Amino acid sequence: MIHLPDLVDWADCLTENCPTFGGRFYQVIPDDSLMIDDRESPVGFVYLSGDAAETNSIATGVRQRVAMEVTVEVIQRRTASKTDKFSSVDADQQRIYRLEIQAALVGWKPVNCLIPIERVSGEQGKKDLRQLTYKDTFRTDYMIFK
């Protein structure tokens, strides 16, 4: 029996614990062309970004531990004007969003997972005059039994 972790649980956890997002977490990979102009800001996207399985540990069936990585990507509208390309408000908002997400996920144990979530890495994404993106990657493990 294989019980995969469900990203809906991740989005629900984020929705419950990240009030500044107003429930705007989606279980999809955002398209590079997505613009936030016609959406509320910020918006969060939750998606599986990688996994790695250990070798089968039994001879009479299947028992494999799988490490999965999930990325939470945040897209936020910028407050900087066209003449002022840098805004400390943007940086402060991004820091608040990241802290909310990390506080919600780190240490939380999703259904069907073996260990609580750990933060793996983060990186600045696309930046332009209209929006900023940031990606945080988290890790947990689950087991495949057959």
Structure in words:
It contains two helices and five strands; from the N terminus they run αβββαββ. With 146 residues, it is an alpha+beta fold. The protein has a single domain, classed as 2-Layer Sandwich (STM4215-like), CATH 3.30.2000. The protein has a five-stranded mixed sheet with strand order 1-2-3-5-4. β4 and β5 form a beta hairpin. α1 packs across α2. The chain starts with 6 loop residues before the first helix and ends with a strand.
Summarize the SSE layout with pairings.
Elements: H1 7-17, E1 25-26, E2 43-53, E3 63-77, H2 88-105, E4 118-127, E5 131-145
Parallel strand pairs: 1-2
Antiparallel strand pairs: 2-3, 3-5, 4-5
Helix pairs in contact: 1-2
